[in-house]
Amino acid sequence: MSSMQATSPTTTSNLSADLKPTGNAVAKVKPCCVCKDEKAARDECMLFSTSNNAQQECQDLVSKYRSCMAGYGFSLP
After folding, report:
1. Cβ(34)–Cβ(40) under 8 Å?
2. Does residue 6 form part of some domain?
3. 1-32 pLDDT per residue, tens
4. Which residues are known binding-site members for Cu cation?
5. DSSP 33
């Protein structure tokens, strides 16, 4: 009756691991799949800005997005 109740310690030891890939795994991540929250905030600011200079108004969000992408090994112009 209890054939599936036992769990091995190796399957539960990774639960608190950092989800951000490191080393060679960073290069395998696609740019479209990372920094989604930062990208959405940046895009929303740029698209719905009522300012005459949206680039200046949203500069902090653009910087956060660039920093996030750099953390995954992508360099943006």
Report:
1. no
2. no
3. 545 555 544 545 555 455 665 666 555 889 99
4. 32-33
5. G
CA-closest candidate to residue 25, choices 15, 17, 16, 13 = 17
Domain with 40, as residue range(s), is 35-77
Max CA pair span of the chain: 69
Length of the chain: 77
Binding residues: 32-33
Total domain count, the chain: 1
Task: Give dist(CA 65, CA 4) in Å, integer.
Answer: 44
The string of pLDDT tens digits covering residues 36-54 is 999 999 999 999 999 999 9
Is it the case that residue 72 has pLDDT exceeding 70?
A: yes
Residue 40 falls within a domain, yes or no? yes
- Spatial distance between the Cα atoms of 63 and 35, rounded to a whole number of angstroms: 12
Nearest to 20 by CA among 10, 9, 35: 35
